[in-house]
Amino acid sequence: MSSAAPAAGPRRWAVVGNGENRRVGLFLAAARAAGLPAPRVVEWRDVLRDGGHAFADEEIVRLDSPGESADVDRLLRGVDEPTRVEGSAAWYARFLAAVGSLRGGVRLDDPADLAVLFDKRLCHARLAAAGVPVPSAPTSGGAWPVRGWDDVRAAMREHRMPRVFVKPAHSSSASGILAVETGAGRVGATTPVEVTPGGRLHNSLRVRRLTDERSIAAIVDTLAPDGLHVERWLPKASLAGRSADLRVLVVAGRATHAVVRTSRFPLTNLHLGGARGDLAAAMAAAGDRWADALEVCERAAACFPGTLCVGVDLLPAIGWRRFAVAEVNAFGDLLPGLRGLPGSGAEDMDTYAAQLAAVAGGGTPRVRRDRAPR
């Protein structure tokens, strides 16, 4: 990989995404507002069906999420129902193959980084090796293979973790996640997974509480072939009486945007009933440690030097004095209407405008330049 900056001269933007998706629409709107020529949109479905795509040398290539498209999901996971949980291992392999089939252009999303970002076990290991605070996880780096519920229970006993999150290794948006807790001879789990009468697993917008260990075990056993990550469930700080965490966007090495997510459940995802919390209140609660919180996020992003922008899920400990990184998201910038943090240089920008400005200012970390075959 070359670390050269984009060549001088006219530059054009291209985005690989799902054209009907709001993510692409927001990025195109930001480019128009910046007075840039309309970026060229390359559809993920075309990349997958055509076996790749070639970009001109001067094109700056931004990858966006392949999600929220039934056609693309079918091509990646091989299932006909977009809400199905199973198939994440196939998704991972086919997505990385599609990324590898892109040729030419100046790339802002490094394929090697993406391979780690979309495997929670590898991502955890990379963060831990860099000294980034993370919840302890026996599956970090693939050290503890999970073949089913018995392995999860064994990991919980051996590592003295009565409460854990069990996550499909290649999932996003809380797909298939279970927050498991044990005590007094009982087992419970909080999850958005719904099991159909035929035993298929579907993501639901309703978070549910399971108290039957056999039902929990059946879900885990079904998900295990796709790969599972198990990590300690850290008690989180609260805000206005609700559990709270943060999504912090880091662009070109600098934390530019942050949103507080609060919920009465251990899962704070906004599409699962979580709500945006008061960022000013969170900053006040952290006080002089707020700078530490942003620094942790920037250290996490620095573990992926070939990728312009990542979204860091940050866990504030009770009392808002310590912080740990739960996950780092390659496509974590869908935060409509959010303006930049004070002192970030992106105060008047949304998440997409901040990325455009970073590239215009030469602020890309280590961009990738691939040459299309002649």
Seen as an oligomer or otherwise, the chain set is single chain
Structural class, from secondary structure content?
alpha+beta
Distance between the termini: 19 Å
Q: Give the total of beta strands.
A: 18
Calculate Rg over CA atoms.
20 Å
Number of helices: 11
Give helix and strand order, one letter per element, not per position: EHEHEEHHEEHHHEEEEHEEEEEHHEEHE
Instruction: Note poorly predicted spans.
Output: 1-9, 365-369
What does the main sheet amount to? 6 strands, antiparallel
Q: Report the average pLDDT across residues.
A: 93
Q: Which percent bin holds the helix content?
A: 25-40%
- Quote the beta fraction: 25-35%
Q: How does this model look, in words?
A:
By secondary structure, the protein is α+β, with helices and mostly antiparallel strands. It is built from eleven helices and 18 strands. The protein has helices spanning 22-33, 44-50, 70-77, 88-100, 111-117, 120-129, 149-158, 213-223, 279-286, 290-302, 351-360; strands at 12-17, 40-43, 53-54, 59-63, 102-103, 106-107, 163-168, 178-183, 186-195, 201-210, 228-232, 238-239, 242-251, 254-263, 275-276, 309-316, 323-329, 368-369. Strands 12, 13, 14, 15, 16 and 17 form a six-stranded antiparallel sheet that branches. The chain has a five-stranded mixed sheet with strand order 2-1-4-6-18. Helix 1 (22-33) links the parallel strand 1 (12-17) and strand 2 (40-43). The chain is globular. It starts with 11 loop residues before the first strand and ends in a 5-residue tail after the last strand. Residues 1-9 and 365-369 have low confidence and may be disordered.
